[in-house]
Each structure stands twice: as structure tokens, then as C-alpha cells.
Amino acid sequence: MRRLEEAALKEWEHAFESDPGEREKFYLTVAYPYPSGAMHVGHGRTYIVPDVIARFWRMRGRQVLYPMAFHVTGAPVIGISKRIARGDEKAIRLYRDLYRVPEETLKEFVNPLTIVRHFSEEYQRVMTACGLSIDWRRRFTTVDPQYSKFIEWQWKHLGEGGHVNKGAHPVRFCPQCDNPVGDHDLLEGDKAEIVKYVMVMFQWKDSFIPTATLRPETIYGVTNLWVNPSVTYVRALVDGTSWIVSREAANKLALQDHSVTIVEDIPGTSLVDQIVNHPLCGDVPVLPATFVDPDMASGIVMSVPAHAPFDYIALRDVQAGGRYKDIQPVALIKVPHYGEFPAKDAVEKAKIVDQNDPRMDALTQEVYSAEFASGRLLEKYGGETVRQARESVGSLMIDSYHSSVMYEFDNRPVVCRCGGRVYVKILHDQWFLQYSDTAWKAQVAAHLAEMSLVPPEVRAEFERTIDWLKDWACTRKVGLGTRLPWDPDWLIEPLSDSTIYMSYYTIAHHLKHFNPEELTPETFDFLFLGKDSPNLKNRDALEMMRKEFEYWYPYDYRFSAKDLISNHLTFQLFHHAAIFPKKSMPRGMVVFGMGLLEGAKMSSSKGNVFLLEDALREFGADTVRMFLVGSAEPWQDFDWRNDLVYSTRKQIERFWNTIEECSGSGSLSSDVNLWLISRLQLHIQKATEALERFQTRQALQEAFYSIESDMKWYRRRLPEGVVGGSALRELQSVWIRLLAPVIPFTCEGLWKETGGEGLVSYAPWPVADKSKTDPNLELSEDLLFRTMEDIESIRKIIQITPSSITLCTAPAWKKAVFATVASAPDKNTVIREIMKDEQMRRRGKAVQDTVKQCITLIHRLPPALVEQYLMADMDEMAVFQKAREFIERECSVRVEIVDAAESTHAKAAAALPLKPAIVME
RNA sequence: GCGAGUGUGACUGAGAGGCCAAAAGUGACCGACUCAAGAUCGGUUCUCGCAGGAGUUCGCAGGUUCGAAUCCUGCCACUCGCACCA
């Protein structure tokens, strides 16, 4: 096996380097890997499935291009190298023990580039060992200077097309790391979302007291504020104005676009019973409440007891203490199914005793939802719906009443992987790709409608993604990557520099030899868009490259796992639409399922992975390939299970042995041989259709298991002492080629051994030959097969050893009945039709029974078989006579064949067409 | 929570109104060849049946139909995505 692999690899070394030619092209790409760790079998499938497709189309005579490169932009390797540098045990164990990086190399991982360099070498080595038919001349990484020039060109167009805008943006931020944090950087709180609050500014003496709210419109119903008397607040100068907030809030505000200087402490108690003012609600008192959390927004809240259950019950609680009796809820919203004070109704209906009741959250949610969905402000407050008022009052406050926005998480705490607390920070000068642009969306949606998507179910998800996509922060401060051409302080973020590189592949091997400085925007404009420009150097070379690009582009299919639908796969459509003309737009996408390992989710961080290289060593490349493409269709999730993989290897060995045995066979022309070849045509056709639809599993079922099961019957049917017949030589050649895309190493070896010409990788794909199919022959073999099954099933039940078997074929009149029934449109009236015939009527009840039996039988047979039977006018008697020797050998008993009409045995009456009566004695 | 998808026999998985007790593979069991095998070959593998048949199954509960694994409704479970991350 190893020798076989080595031999094939040697022959393939340059075999898949592909250049434009006369033939029609087929260009497929896979999302390039981010080489920050070793490949596991899940990665293996991602690249092997496209390889099977590539090999298939290559054999069908297409000029196939399957390129590969490495995506090394972004921040992860920076983090990894830092962790390794600081001696992080977990990281070191992962790389040293799981990925088996040699000690000396690991030491060099303090340089992030070493990591990607190390693993991209490993990727190429392992991919090659898998037999991937990649044109490696085109390999590049995304930090190559030439590629950076390409990205600059891309962004120049995006910028000029008005797709990139600058803005401020709230992000999760860790002050300890001094960096924004993504989901994967979080220890805790990965579900938390950033929520936008409006700070309502109440005047107190010469200061503002901001109260953060999601419902600014309820200002009209404010009866008081709540402060926590046990908390020490601060007075701070915020953007030059004096504010009273919690200490926590002061720190948060400093991250959110405000200059904050803390002036003095203000104990909560000193705020209690103070009177504050807001122009929209007048003077209100400040009341004490222990539920007020200083770490939530500003740390002071406004109270709307008519509409907020919490406020209602807190007010009730303080009033129970005998004070503040004069404060009454102020209603401002009318909601169907609720009275004047919805909060009161809800609290009373739920029989809430005090503010510590755990049901309070749900109750709050209920009232809020009801009011938001169907509430309307009272006429004296404008009569708007709550939905409208929330917006309009919010902006009114910001415009006229000193309010501003404050961001806070909806769930806390949020903790960074470094252990530090995470806050919301407003990032400035952030660049955005304007995916929210409706015109751009429409352009992409229109193109999507014309694309081929596999499997078709993913279309809905793409459509929804396009619809839902918002602006994307596309620049970063840290990581590897290309700088934004017009603002070099920023790096282009990794999901935004990997969207149109499929075009780069088409000429990547030429670009390599260019001085990056020569790769001006004008050069790329010429190469990819055909825009001429007077000052192009090296024109001849560029023109040739332009031709190559035009030959390959657009790509035919892009392959990727389904988790990339909502970002990469959709992004790349946007970018293509923004830059390329219609004729260069992508044609299709194939979306993969995910991988499981022995039933559990594969995950490098949990150590639950099986390295691809180990799999190759243990099972051999062909086994790994066949298992990965054959255990489930590409878009289904697959489960790597060692026992199944092991048996896959046995199947390949069986195939090898069968083919080897074929070669020794002499010539023998007979029905069985013709039958085998006839059946083969069907398998060729079905396997071909399956691969055209990317159904690798289905193709394998046809190309492997179906042929194998034919072989079983074939061997059984051969005369005694004969090992094989003339059909085998033809089958051999076809079979090797059918399996070559899936198990290329084995097939390359067999092809050579059986005298095939050249590489099987380039051998012509078998074509089903209609003239070799013989439906009648297949029908009679089918009849024979069914009859054998019946004989066996009877023998098993009666448990006697028969001394003779008699097959009674159905008499002619039953055939006539069968035919009439089979072609009758209405099976209910068919008896009447048949009974019109004088001859039939005379047979009486026998006809009636036969009709019933035929109806049942016809329902049970495959329609195609029945149809063929009607056309064939088969002589069953002759079929059985011919196979008599075979049946006798199989059953080890004397066999007689008679027409049922001539038999006196009671069983003979049961004979039907395609179902002879069987008499065992 | 929202969006998309999936639920079939011990397992992986075909099947998309009558061909369905439901392909193929795996596992298990029984034979054969063997000193032996994780080898190879043949058979069995929902229940019942001494005549090729009958009965109960395709996440759960209803419904449509002469007839449902397949169509409709509701429920439950699982997978993926929900963004500044490859």
C-alpha cells in the first residue's frame, strides 16, 4: 500500500498543474485554511470532497483547476505565539503533544510568522499525501507583498464604490488587554449583547443625575428616582459638566466617548429625599431602594410605577413603611387588556408580595412586551404608539434635554480570557463595509438567484443572510494583514481580505515573479477588468495573464462548510458584485456539513480530534478518502468512526483482489456475461449523474457496492468450474476508472497493472453505452433471481429436504389477464372488462382469483419491471429451461419445469406471470 | 430568544403517496475453508408462520387519503448561524 502511494505521488508530482487549453474548463476552489494548527480528519474532508469532484471532471475531459493557498491574516497566531512565549501550559500542551511540533520549532513559535509557516508546510505535505490534485504552483499566502498589492487594489475599488465608511462603534473591550474581544476571547458572558440606553438627565442643584433607560418615552410617568442608600456615588465632571453617577458608571463613561474627572464622593444617603427636575416631568423626589445596582448603567434609575412592575412594587414597599404616601403612579400608556396601571394589574394578578419575588423579571418582560407591541401614549402626550414614541422621545431628549447614549451589556458579568472584566467601549474612526446598503444587497440577491447552490436547502439561509447583514467593522489595529490604502493606521480584517482571491489564483504563479511595486492598481485593472492604461509595463506578459484570467474566471464552484454561510460565503458575493462585471460573477457554491469524531463534536481545544496525518498512516490515503466521501453526502454531517474506517479498508482490498482475479479470465460469451455488461451501463450512468450533482456517497454506492452485488450474482451464475468470463475484462477497465476519483492511489496502481494507458487520473471517464444494455436479458435474470429467492424462502419454512422441485410457469391466459390488469387505468373495473371475453368467462372463478392476485402482484413489483415484461413477451418456460442446470446445482436436487396447465398438482394453480408455482416434494 | 436545517431498524444512512419490513454498508449471530485469524466465502439479523404469507414499525400526537416513513397541523429533540472571529 505504501509503495503504491509513493509510486503514484511521484507520477502526480506535476500532473495537476493546469494551464488554459482548448478544452472547456472547470474551476473549483475551497476556502483556504488558516494554518494555525495541525489538520484533522474534518479538514481532510473539506479538501478531499472537492478533489473527488476535480478528478471526476478531469476524467470527463475538462481542463480542471484546483488551487490552494494559505490565509495567514488576523490575530489568532499572535495570541498563540504570546501564549507560548509566556509559557502557557495549555497552549504548549496543545502544540507539543497534540500537534506534535518538535521542541526546537516550538521555541521559534514566539514569532507568529513561524507558526503559519510551519503549519502551511505541514498542510501542503498532508494534502499531497491525501492525493489532492492541486496545482501547487499557484500557492501563496495572504501576507505575500504581491497579494497585499492585490488587496490594496480591491479596497481601492470598494472605497471608490462607496462601500467603505467611517464611524464610531461600540465593542466589547478588555482594558487589561487593551483590545476589543470577540466571543472566543471570553471566559464568561459570551451570550451578552450590547444594549443601547438613553440617559435621562435630571437636574439637581448644579449637577445632572443621569438615569439610564430603555424606555425614554416613560419620562411622562416618572414619579421619583431610585438611589441605593448603601452606595457611595461620585460627582464627576463629564465633558465639563457636573454629573452624579456611581463610581462604576464613571469608569464606563470614560470608555464611551466622554472625558471623565471624578471630583468628590456623594453618599447615596445624601441624595435621598432630594428633589430633582426634568422639564418633561417636573419636580420629583429621590427615594431609597436597595435593588438599584451601581454596576448597572449609571447606577441611578427613574421610577415609573404605572408601567414598570419593579417600580410599582418598590414604591408599594416604601409606602408600607408609612412614608411617601402622597406619591401616586402616573399613567401615560394605554394597553389593550390592561387597566389604567398595567404594572399594578400585573403585580396584583400574579400576587407578588415584595420586590424580591423571583417572578419579577418575567413580569417586567411581560408588561414591556405588551406595551411595546400594542401600547399607545395618551393623547396629552402625543398619542403615538410606544414603538414610535420610544424613538421620537429618545431623539428629542438627545437633541434638547442634554441626554446622551450609554451602552451596557444585557447580561453580566462579561469576563475576558485574561480574567479581566470586559466593558463596552466606543471605537472611533472605525471603518465599515456597508453591507447594510440596500442597493448593494439587491445586486447580490439578484445574482444569488442565478447561482447554483448545493444542496438547494441552503438558498433560504443565504437569502436571509443577505437581508440581515449589517455594516461590518472591517479594520483592526492588531494582527497580520494588509494596511488600508488610504488610512494605513488600520489593517484590513481577515474576513474582508479573503473574498475575491479566487481571481488571484488564476494568475498567482505569474504574479509571484513580479516586483510588488509594479503591481499598481492600473495593472490589476487591466488584468481583472480589462481596463487599458497607457503606462503599463511588461505588456505582453500582462496580456497573456489577462487571457488566463479570462479563461478560468468566473469560478464554477466554491466549497465551504456551512458555518461560513453567514459571513464568508455571502461576503464574497458582495465583493464580487462590487468589483467584477457580471460575466465574472461566481457560478455556484457547495456547502458542507460538520464533522463528528466517534459521535462527539470535533474540537481542537478539547483535544477531541483525529489528526489527518495519523489517519493516513494508520489506514492509508485511499481508505481515508473513501470513508470521508462515502459515509455521508458532503452537506451532511459525518461521523469518523474507527471501526467503519477499518472496514472501508477491507473493501478496498476486496476490490483490489477482485480486479486482480479478473485479469486471469479466459473468453466466454454467454448470457451472464452480456447481463453483467448490460447492468454495468446502468451503474456508469447513475454514478456519473451522482457526481454531477456532487453526491459522492451515492456515486460510491453505484460505482462500488452495486457492481459488487452484480458480481456476486454473476459468479453464482457461471457454469461449474468457470472462474470468469469475457465480460470481466471490460468490467475491470470500467470499474477502475469509476473508482479512480475516490481511491486514486489504488486505481492508479491497478490501471498500470492491467495495461491501462497513461495515468488513470487522465483516463476517459466511462460512458454508458445504450447498445450494450439488454432489458430483456435483465428481465429474465430478474425473474430467475426472484424465483430462487422464493425457493429458498419456502425451503426455510417447510424444513424438509425436497427430493425434487417442479416449477410451473403460468399458462397463456394468465399472461393475458396480467397484461390487461397491468395496463388498466382503473383496477376496480378491470374484472368486468376481462369478463367480457367469452373465453375468460368460461374459466369462471379462476379468472376472478387471478385478477385479484395480479393486482396484488403488480403493486408489489417495480413498475419498470412490469413495463418491461409487457413489452418483452418473455418465454418464461425457456428462461427456466436454460437455467435448469443452475437451479439444480444451487438446490442440489432434480428440477423440472412444466406449464402449469399441464400439471395436476394443486399448487400449480398458484402460478402467475413472473411468479411460477413452486412444487417441492 | 430569532433564523435555517435534521429526526428511519443495534449503528452509519437510502427512501419523498401504493414497488416498503423499508437499499447499501457496519456490527452481531450461524455455517464453510482453516492450526488459527480483526482474513476470505455463503447465510441469518422487527414478531409470528412446516409453502413463497400475515402482523406491528420510520421522533411524539392528531389530520387528509381507498392507501402515509413519504402530504398537512401542533409538539418534542438535535445540529448550524446570530458578527468584528478564523
* Poorly predicted segments: none
Number of helices: 34
Total DSSP E strands: 31
Mind summarizing the main beta sheet? 5 strands, parallel
Question: What is the CATH C level class of the largest domain, in words?
Answer: Alpha Beta
User: How many structurally independent domains?
Assistant: 4
In CATH, the architecture of the largest domain is 3-Layer(aba) Sandwich
CATH T-level fold name of the largest domain: Rossmann fold
Q: Taking strands numbered 1, 2, ... along the chain, how are they ordered across the largest sheet?
A: 2-1-24-25-20
What is the mean pLDDT?
A: 89
| Beta-strand content | 15-25%
Fourth-level CATH superfamily of the largest domain? HUPs
Molecular shape: globular
Distance between the termini: 53 Å
Query: What is the radius of gyration?
Result: 39 Å
Indicate the structural class: alpha/beta
Helical content band: 40-55%
Description:
- The chain has 921 residues and is of the alpha/beta class.
- It folds into 4 domains: 2-142 and 150-160 and 450-467 and 493-510 and 555-597, 3-Layer(aba) Sandwich (Rossmann fold); 193-410, Valyl/Leucyl/Isoleucyl-tRNA synthetase, editing domain (Isoleucyl-tRNA Synthetase, domain 2); 662-773, Isoleucyl-tRNA Synthetase, Domain 1, CATH 1.10.730.10; 783-920, no CATH class.
- 45% of the residues lie in helices and 16% in strands.
- Strands 2-1-24-25-20 form a 5-stranded parallel beta sheet, with helices on both faces. A 4-stranded antiparallel beta sheet has the order 4-3-19-21. Strands 12-13-8-14 form a 4-stranded mixed beta sheet, with helices on one face.
- Strand 6 and strand 7 (207-213) form a beta hairpin.
- Helix 3 (76-85) crosses helix 6.
- 43% of the residues are buried.
- The model has no long low-confidence stretch (mean pLDDT 89).
- The structure holds one RNA strand of 86 nucleotides.
